[in-house]
Amino acid sequence: MSRSLNQAIYDVMKKCLISILLISVCSSAYNQILKGTIQDQSTTMSVNFATVYFNGTFVGTHSDQNGYFELDISKYKSMPLTVSALGYYTVTISDLSSDKYYRILLVPKVFELGEVLVKGKAKLKARKEKSVYLKSFSNDFLGTTVNAQKCKITNENDIILKYDAVNDTLKAFSSTPILIENKALGYKISYFLDKFELSKKKNYLSYSGSVFSQEDLTADTSQKEKYEKKRITAYFGSRMHFFRTLWLNNLESTGYSISDTAHNKLRYTDIVVQRDSLIKYLKYRGKLLITYHKRAVTYVVMSKDGVSFDKNGYFDANAIKWDGEMAKHRIADWLPLEYSVKGKQIGRKQ
């Protein structure tokens, strides 16, 4: 074999080896696999079939029979990871790293089981009472919009309601995820409820939890088109739309304006701080007034540290309180963070 032929073969092999190495490097760079084990905090026993996911997305997995899990975190590395399991409180983990092995401890949910419980002088009226309270819960949890009319909780019997007649306070608990069929937007939702408290007397509503969902895979082309029309309507003017727009600094071009309660318009630099390439903060001392197309008004109050958010529209829901138009958007109008509007409809008017 001639020297020139040997050199040619060597050059080809060298290029192939370099290509393989590049593919390997790129794969490891783009696929960041987080690994860990989920255990009961009290017993340290493995928790199998726990759901490990990014809240509000389709990205997730389940722990195996030994509580072990693996999940690619590269797509949502700016978000905390959520872990939920039947009979346990949800746990969130921040500052994720694929170089670290995680041991996640879940706290069992402990609350009084049974039918509707009433404190004070009010008496139980069994199913009739529960039906009334369940309707109240559904209206405030799912919402009362057009989309809410096509939402159904399929496991209502798993929800425990406790009503305090003295303080006019309704609380809801569930050891299992609340299963919701949204036939308006085409999603099946599992909502892991950690807290629900309603007091109409004090005009107070507080609920928290996390969402894991999937699309309606049985929908045909015609049904998908109907879903998309409703999703577009739900998207524009939503909290996700607002934070995506805020990330891009496109507020004015999309119909948003932000001012203080005296209606003094605020500049972008007055309210947004960027710490790194993945996270920004909405920060302001006092109440902000958000207006969408000069008619949909929302008031927000933030924690002293501000509200972290990213380009996908994810934001720290625990650091902000809503009042007004955006506060009306409940689970029935929820969209996953994977959702995007096709075409040039960035500033669409509601």
Structural class of the secondary elements? alpha+beta
Mean pLDDT: 85
Number of structural units classed as domains = 3
Helix content: 10-25%
Radius of gyration: 24 Å
Give the distance, in angstroms, between the N- and C-terminal Cα atoms: 75 Å
Shape: globular
Low-pLDDT residue intervals, each spanning 5 or more residues: 12-29, 112-116, 118-124
Order of H and E elements: HEEEEEEEEHEEEEEEHHEHEEEEEE
Counting copies of identical and different chains, the oligomeric state is single chain
How many individual β-strands?
A: 21
Describe the structure.
By secondary structure, the chain is α+β, with helices and mostly antiparallel strands. It has three domains: 31-106, Immunoglobulin-like (Sandwich); 117-215; 239-328, no CATH class. 21% of the residues lie in helices and 31% in strands. It has five helices and 21 strands. It has helices at residues 3-30, 126-142, 221-235, 239-248, 268-271, and strands spanning 33-40, 51-53, 60-62, 68-72, 81-84, 91-93, 101-106, 117-119, 151-153, 160-164, 169-173, 178-182, 187-199, 204-215, 256-260, 272-274, 280-282, 287-292, 296-302, 307-309, 320-324. Strands 8, 9, 10, 11, 12, 13 and 14 form a seven-stranded mixed sheet that branches. The protein has a four-stranded antiparallel sheet with strand order 3-2-5-6, with no helix packed on it. It is globular, with a radius of gyration of 24 Å. Mean pLDDT is 85; it is low at 12-29, 112-116 and 118-124.
